[in-house]
Amino acid sequence: MSTIINRGPAEKIRVQRLQRGLSQENMADLLGLSTTAYGDIERGKTDLTLSRLTQIATVLAISPLTLLTDEALTAQVIEVKTDELASHERETLRLMVEKQQLELDKLRLEADYWKRKYDDRIAMEVLRSMGVEQKRERIGF
Question: What pLDDT digit, counting tens, does each position of 4-25 carry?
């Protein structure tokens, strides 16, 4: 069990608890601790174990990392991740659009091919119905 000897998480736990409108007694009950033991955690008088930190974070519905890191640093990390994600999403969308454009071009070429085939077939039928014999070219056999 790793022990965290830092007053920072204790203060962050208190702030998070207050933001959620919970009393120390409520938190102690949710964690299965006495009110005094929980109060000692918030005052930094008790060494906080990693398992207890995780338990507290779960009760507060936050990541344990939130209680361990500086808020400004966390905000910067989130901002960078958001920018990276946005950049990644933009690139993914750009590639999807490019792929769709290529597929559309392919379908247009195929449609043109079949249109020419149809037009040639109609022209041959019209000539045949008019009695005009169309000379076929030899293909070299």
Answer: 444 478 888 998 899 889 999 9
